[in-house]
Amino acid sequence: MPRIGVIGVPTSAGAFAPGQEEAPGALRAAGLVQAVPDATDHGDREPFRWRPDREHPYAQNLGPVVEIVQDTARRVAEVAAAGELTLVLGGDCTVGVGTVAGQLGPGGRLGLVYLDLHADLNVPRSVRPGALDWMGMAHMLGEEGAEQPLVEAGPRTPMLAPDQVVLLGWGPDQAQPREREAIERLGLPVIPVDEVRADSQTAGRRALQALEDHADRILVHFDVALVDFTDTPLSENTGRNEGLPYATVIAALHALLLSPRLVGLTVTELNPHHVEAGANSIERLARDLAHGLTTIA
């Protein structure tokens, strides 16, 4: 089993509202690091709490997001160079851009499994709220209309090609028009939410197979918004009666973590303020993350 390096990125800079900056600390308090054998905790960076950016309403907090992405990339690259599998605890979804940027350097082609209900293929002028955390994939792919400072935040532009990405758990009903258009235009491999619901482990294995000829190393981006908020409130996104039961999502994640080419896992969109009182949902998530990581061959 490879040694696991834990990197905390407590930020809600790209989010719709505050809360996600508390997620890394909450996962640590729930015992995640202690539950992973031989984990090295590389600590948290300085937190950034969401605030409205009235000067840039359609790409709010772009400057802080880019700085955090670049800092995360540097930290991930250092941990990966030391031979550790990176476990990055966000924070909003833009943290995943930093993980990808940091993993591009070690050599070999990188593949990304995006385990998320949303494709994050929006750009600032295609949606109103101006939250960059549902635009990360568009920026990693260098889509037209994306913000160049974020597109260019990594060691290469674009950071990823379409055949390096698989969208696992994507919800067509939650997609914005531009996201649907981009998926079709780019030919992005998609395993939709209903297929994961039908057989989560098979869906996870299919995602890995889709990258088999396109990637030497696999990175998993896990957005807890895939978990239905009614089943288990965890996410920043409070979508009810959408997504999947918690157990189904974890089964898909565990199938992904069995890949012998796995180099990292990013966990995003956890908002401790939204967790059901007394349900111990973060403790359960910490245990299940640790269990998936300890089964790595």
Characterise the protein shown here:
This protein has helices at 23-29, 32-35, 62-81, 95-103, 136-140, 148-151, 177-186, 193-198, 200-210, 246-257, 281-294; strands spanning 4-9, 40-44, 85-90, 110-115, 165-170, 190-192, 217-223, 262-268. Helix 10 links the parallel strand 7 (217-223) and strand 8 (262-268). The longest helix is centred in the first third of the chain and has 20 residues, at 62-81. The protein starts with a strand and ends with a helix. The radius of gyration is 17 Å and the shape is globular. It has an eight-stranded parallel sheet, sandwiched between helices. By secondary structure, the chain is an alpha/beta fold.
* Structural class by sheet pairing and helices: alpha/beta
Question: Could you give the distance between the termini?
Answer: 6 Å
Strand segment count: 8
Give the SSE order as H and E letters: EHHEHEHEHHEHEHHEHEH
The overall pLDDT, averaged over residues, is: 96
**Number of helical segments with 4 or more residues:** 11
The unreliable regions are none
In this structure, how is the largest beta sheet organized?
8 strands, parallel
Widest beta sheet: strand line-up: 2-1-3-8-7-4-5-6
- Rg over CA atoms, rounded to whole Å, is 17 Å
Overall 3D form: globular
What portion of residues is helical?
A: 25-40%
How much strand content do the residues show? 15-25%
